[in-house]
Protein 1
Amino acid sequence: MVDVILGLQWGDEGKGKIVDYFAPHYSIIARFQGGPNAGHTLYVNDKKIVLHQIPSGIFHESIVNLIGNGVVLDPVTLKKECATVAGFGVDVKKNLFISERTHLILPTHRALDKAAELSKGDGKIGSTLKGISPAYMDKTGRNGLRVGDLLHKSFISSYIKLRLKHQKLLDNYHFSEEISAWEEEFFEAVEFLKTLNIVNGEYFINEALNKGKKVLAEGAQGSMLDIDFGTFPFVTSSNTISAGVCSGLGVPPQKINEVIGISKAYCTRVGSGPFPTELMDGTGEQLRTTGSEFGATTGRPRRCGWIDLVALEFACMINGVTSLVMTKADVLDAFDELSMCTAYKTDGEITNQVPFQMTRNQIEPQYKIFKGWKQDSSFFKDVSELPEEMKAYINFINKTLGVPVGFISNGPGRDQIIKIPVL
Ligand code: GDP
Ligand code: IMO
Ligand code: MG
């Protein structure tokens, strides 16, 4: 069967750490969407590592890691990442596999991303500028080049044709970028990529499933950044939700088993777009400082606010979440009071539903106040140590979402995680 771990908010929920924690129960860890816009942090031997495209199971020797067809892959970032993990003794030639159907991010995709963002002015998305949107546009526009194409003689001529097309688009934007250094890096990285295990991902994964092997699909970004269900247009360009697993790996829906949703104990967002519970005051600043809320990919300060149960309930619904992991509980340790958004007020009406256009409606979050636990929770090892206030906080989430919080994470370390029995 395939289990899924994915983010329920606007990304950076701590997916990397949680995938690394659950990885030993699986034979294959697979990324099914997104690309180097992701930054998944994990700690190996107390050293911090941020992975962008390689799945977060790579540090477990016996686990196979697959980059699925739904991903958009930048060979340059991949080559750098492979060098980083090799420094930790990982042999990528042994346990990293890449689908031949995975689309490539070209240097001109990065230039186009920049040009599109600049042209939007104040309405910019806040893209990571990694070329994600132009690469997915070329996929759906049926122009893109795929990893399997690298192995054919016609690759260079197809590349030149596509670059020409991109050049015309860049001219339309009146945007110019010197990309010759990027291209040099790109072609070096392509040669490296050709030496890795390029496979037919859908047969690879289905054959493993037929042999009874367990697969964990690792989501990138978060449900509120989903191209269909997120806060459009301030979203990413892929289906980040559990449905994306089927099209992003080539597995049938009947094979999806557990869907583990990750949510912070509060909420963050990086980039532009609606964020109803955002705090622009000292409390938001305290969350940012205590939680070290700076982007793992771009270093940008993350916007911070209270947990939003309206958005979370929506995310649980569209993903079919079977259990939750609540991360960064320790970040709330010092607060006297904590707030949870339980409803939105919009156009004078109270609602528990996420509106069609969050950008058009003024949303006033309705809060329920909780007493803080005011203790250092980062040393807790067992549910019996949890203060009553923390239990009340977790129980309310369980009850409202109708999905159990199965684990809480109380620090960035590999061992800072506590199993919560079903209450
Ligand atoms: P991802 O993109 O979902 O994998 O998350 P990121 O790696 O972008 O951001 C999560 C950040 O929070 C990283 O710096 C993690 O090391 C850190 N982190 C994860 N879980 C916890 C936790 O329970 N407590 C604290 N304090 N930090 C955590
Ligand atoms: P992980 O996997 C947080 C955001 C960007 C921007 C929007 C579109 O680490 O959780 P894009 O580059 O995809 O065109 O940017 O999406 N974004 C993320 N925010 N975590 C991520 O990934 C993100 N990937 C993209 O900031 O607002
Ligand atoms: Mg991240």
Note: The chain has a mean pLDDT of 96.
Protein 2
Amino acid sequence: MDLDAVTKQSALHAKPDGLTLQYGTAGFRTKAEHLDHVMFRMGLLAVLRSKQTKSTIGVMVTASHNPEEDNGVKLVDPLGEMLAPSWEEHATCLANAEEQDLPRVLVDIGEKAAVNLHQDAFVVIARDTRPSSEKLSQSVIDGVTVLGGQFHDYGLLTTPQLHYMVYCRNTSGQYGKATIEGYYQKLSAAFVELTKQASCSGDGQRTLKVDCANGIGALKLREMKHYFSQGLSVQLFNDGTKGKLNHLCGADFVKSHQKPPQGIEMKSNERCCSFDGDADRIIYYYHDADGQFHLVDGDKIAALISSFLKEPLLEIGDSLSLGVVQTAYANGSSTRYLEEVMKVPVYCTKTGVKHLHHKAQEFDIGVYFEANGHGTVLFSKAAEMKIKQLAKELEEDKKRKAAKMLENVIDLFNQATGDAISDMLVIEAILALKGLTVQQWDALYTDLPNRQLKVKVADRQVISTTDAERQAVKPPGLQEAINELVKKYRLSRAFVRPSGTEDIVRVYAEADSQENADSLAYEVSLAVFQLAGGIGERPQPGF
Ligand code: 16G
Ligand code: MG
């Protein structure tokens, strides 16, 4: 390592005094103007990680659903996964080192992680459409080059597309071609093949309105839609030509406000969906004939997909294990439906894609979705080989068809991470094959009314949780208080957890009616405020 060169270059990307940031649930996120040094340093770190894993590493510049003025950065590990936890710690140390300590911290990480510095390094970089992203990704490149790493800059990509590129490159192209056309072709071919068997149903079934959050999803979907136009016509809204990124639109807005985005024309019973700003989340919704809004969230996506997969799996007669992974935010009705009606095992992990992804890898077929619309289905290598073999070998026509269908499903799901475009195509294929309307899909089960609130406290780390964030172990007395409050309502449940992305505590409550869910959420917020050092205004009842 040429540490002198690092010091010199670093001075051009100097860290503001006293600023400390944390590699959180989805990397570093804050106002774009505070991120230049972090980008440079993540370029350095990506080189070390690449040398250590002898693989290509990805760096994505994005702040997902956050406001346009924000930005962020995260590293992508060799098989398209999120960065390993021990390296998240290295990332935090490196980002917070004062200028004069930077060389020492860099050497430290190299030693701790046993990095062979003579190894070659290769880093792939991409960014979202934020005005600040281009300059910030140049800072990443500066970091990569000063340590002698090679790189390829993909320019504008969705986050899942960068994960896909990393995965392709580290599997010698076996997973697919590491180009944007490679991505379009792989997914579209699987979609067209899968939907061939759908009987032609009316027009309404095959058009979809997509709110692109004024983000990168719009650019990519516009390029891609010609590849699958035989099977589906998508109409883009909030495509970035007028509105501001994530402003009053996008998956996060729709999910948290439980109302449609601005800038989309919804007719009754029309199927619509929203991506978030970097297109790794998707949420569906519609207006019924009475003008009432209905949200079809990540939980319902998991329910649709799992019930769809059960049939061909049963048909091929092979006992591949199927598991569904959710978080504490999963609506109680969805968990009950999956366990009691679908009879599939359901597991709960902590919030954040990496936790769900990890758990889903334990099954032959692991379906994972967060209620907020992050998710995918992972097939183990063994399951994939088995299915591909059966698709070739099986004599009986029906069985072979089922295996072929599963083969297409494998190709259609982005196996590297949750992907709004890939998930959208899977959902559209399933609806077409099953001849289901969005209302029929929504009717799989009825969501329990729920409410989410935020509470400000002096230090959110005074709350610690266990049991996949469903129980608070600290501060003393908080869980007991929550238990007492929950007892007052029917079909109720509540939990609190410190946010991994904002300086607040999140409260979730559900109950038999909206009124009860609202009161429970309010009462739990008050308990947090009193027992966990609330600051500012006390929580107020009513919404
Ligand atoms: C991040 C996570 C998301 C999680 C959210 C929770 C990824 C790619 N994203 O956006 O999965 O739901 O954080 O935020 O992992 P919170 O900790 O503020 O509630
Ligand atoms: Mg996102």
Note: The longest helix spans residues 298-316.
